[in-house]
Write a structure and sequence with these properties.
- Keywords: ATP-binding, Kinase, Nucleotide-binding, Protein synthesis inhibitor, Serine/threonine-protein kinase, Transferase.
- It catalyses: L-seryl-[protein] + ATP = O-phospho-L-seryl-[protein] + ADP + H(+); L-threonyl-[protein] + ATP = O-phospho-L-threonyl-[protein] + ADP + H(+).
- This protein has about 350 residues and is of the alpha+beta class.
- It folds into two domains: about 10-170, Phosphorylase Kinase, domain 1 (2-Layer Sandwich), CATH 3.30.200; about 175-350, Transferase(Phosphotransferase) domain 1 (Transferase(Phosphotransferase), domain 1), CATH 1.10.510.10.
- The chain has ten helices and twelve strands.
- The protein has helices at about 10-15, 95-110, 130-135, 145-160, 175-180, 190-210, 275-290, 295-305, 320-330, 340-350; strands spanning about 25, 50-60, 65-70, 75-85, 120-125, 160-170, 210-215, 220-225, 230-235, 240-245, 250, 270.
- The strands form four sheets. The chain has a six-stranded antiparallel β-sheet. Strands 7-10 form a two-stranded antiparallel ribbon.
- It starts with 11 loop residues before the first helix and ends in a 5-residue tail after the last helix.
């Protein structure tokens, strides 16, 4: 069964999607239907992809590309993540499960001020003409996005249409990595550092309270609300996240996260715990509190985790106890590490600028 047209699902049975057609907070003029129980988004509608103007590529990853789109009907800006399932595709394999986890989180996770908000998920087939409209070559500003565009373009050229899962999200500003690289130490940023740390803890606590492990927490996945580094910050990119039935170990057939931010117990074991997220959080908090630059982070992380050089963590001039928190979160032995995000939140909530 193939249904084709603006914003509709195609080959749903073939690809065995676990949801019927669409989950969204925005109505569409197509045959899409809404998922039950999805919270209101103050009247926003899910955009028909034909009703959007595409303004640029925001980034890419192993399964697809993210573009900046504007709804012509009301000039509303959003980010559209297009996930292209691999050609050699095992319906119950790790790639499929990863895509489905991200879709499930986008559909079911209620809004939180410190998480990037998803508006809905829809699936359709993309033709060569549509692909070149959404992803023109001049949008690709990095070697990585140019490479990804070429891979998917080659595929759609060969088979005429390829399936794409589209996740519509709020559009945010720069990421925390950009802020770290551009920000210089000065008294006026103390409050910003405190708020960034609190925001990250709040967002991760919301996930853990709902038994979701992020599994790839790093500055690149923490976004400012909009341009000019406006607060609050929001945790995004749930492509590697895990939804658990308990607070025990998660085991997977695929690897987790970015190596520099992975907890020691996850390296080579393919197991993941709540405390593994906390380890990553501790490293990011350290970067924020000490303004560690990109070219220094790997050396600093290695000396802290493997050589136990806690002296590298400096006392913050105004945020009390942040050094002790970082040490507690980045212990190599998981049993010695801070045990829950609730414990972290209790510490951070007490912080005041001295």
């Amino acid at each position: 069964m193939v249904i084709d047209g603006p914003g509709t699902v195609v080959d749903r049975i073939k690809l065995k999607l676990p949801f019927s057609v669409i989950a969204s907070t925005r109505n569409s003029t197509s045959n899409d239907t809404e998922a039950e129980g999805w919270p209101s988004l103050e009247g926003r509608k899910f955009p028909n992809i034909y009703d959007l103007d595409y303004k640029g590529c925001l980034g890419g990853g192993s399964f697809g590309l993210v573009v900046h789109a504007i709804d012509r009907s009301d000039d509303y800006s959003c980010a559209m993540k297009f996930i292209f399932p691999p050609e050699i595709f095992v319906s119950n394999g790790p790639d499929w499960k990863s895509i489905m986890r991200e879709c499930k989180i986008a559909i079911e996770l209620e809004p939180h001020p410190n998480l990037v908000r998803s508006f809905g998920v829809v699936m359709r087939r993309i033709s060569v003409e549509e692909y070149n409209t959404i992803f023109p070559s001049n949008f690709m500003t990095s070697e990585e996005t140019r490479r990804l565009r070429a891979i998917h373009l080659d595929r759609v050229d060969r088979v005429e249409k390829i399936p794409a899962i589209c996740i519509t999200m709020e559009i945010c500003g720069e990421n925390l990595r950009q802020w770290l690289n551009e920000t210089q130490d000065a008294p006026q940023i103390r409050h910003q550092q405190l708020v960034i740390i609190r925001n990250m803890v709040s967002g991760l606590k919301y996930l853990h309270d709902r038994r979701i492990r992020h599994c790839d927490l790093k500055p690149e996945n923490v976004l400012f609300t909009n341009e000019e580094y406006n607060l609050p910050v929001k945790i995004g990119d749930f492509g590697l996240s895990r939804i658990t039935n308990s607070f025990e170990v998660t085991t997977t057939a695929s690897d987790f996260g970015t190596r520099e931010y992975m907890a020691p117990e996850t390296l080579g074991t393919k197991t993941y715990y709540d405390q593994s997220d906390l380890f990553s959080l501790g490293l990011v908090i350290w970067e924020v509190a000490q303004l560690i630059k990109f070219n220094k982070r790997r050396k600093f992380f290695d000396r802290l985790v493997n050589d136990q050089k806690v002296g590298l963590i400096k006392l913050h001039t105004e945020i009390e106890d942040v050094r002790e928190l970082i040490i507690g979160l980045t212990k190599r032995d998981m049993a010695e590490r801070v045990q829950s995000i609730t414990d972290v939140a209790q510490v951070v909530e007490k912080w005041k600028l001295t």
